[in-house]
Amino acid sequence: ALVWWLNRRRWVVALMPLAALLLNMGYVSSMIQLPDFNAPAGSHDIRIATLNVNGFRQLGPKSITAAAVAEMMRHEQVDVLCLQEFLDDGEFPADSIGALFSRRMPYFVSPSRYPILDCKYVRFPDTSNDYLRADLLVEGDTLRIFSVHLQTSGIAQLRRHFQKDYNREAPVDSMLGAVDRNSRIRAAQVREIRAETDASPYPVILAGDFNDTPMSYVYRTMARGLR
Predict the structure, then answer these.
(1) Whole-model pTM?
(2) What SS3 state is found at 44?
């Protein structure tokens, strides 16, 4: 709209989309980022991916979905993979999932391209959310990576509940209540993550499913001091 009205020489009207862009520049700059043209050659030698795999249910059988994810990561030449909602069961346990990935990305397991020096798993209290912290040896330096899954907004679950039990859409007040309640939970979780990253003696990479927007308290708190 800004380009359109500037092209039409409607200067006053163009002030409205210009004001909208300026007021939301924090969001725009978080969503649209240019590459670092000043970075020296060879400074991005480690490739990290993060994905909420939703229990490997997207394509039907878990084995099919897990194999597709592993193949995608092999194609993208990923060095470190952070997965959320990594759910296994008796028919498809964790070692079977690991075997699918190790066949396509053998350096993940033996020997690991970046050896894991230490790791820590934490479940947030009173929720099904968690994070995993791992210290990797990367070309002689230790790097601490967090794979985080923060509290969801709860909207999708609430809508499914009302559709299943009452065959109707969830009322607005219920959805707003869910958003408020889960935002508070997410804020408490991110304060714990922030304390962990601040205390890290090593450089930190923070990855995961944050369930929030770049303009939120959660995102700003987590991203403080990080690029």
Answers:
(1) 0.79
(2) coil
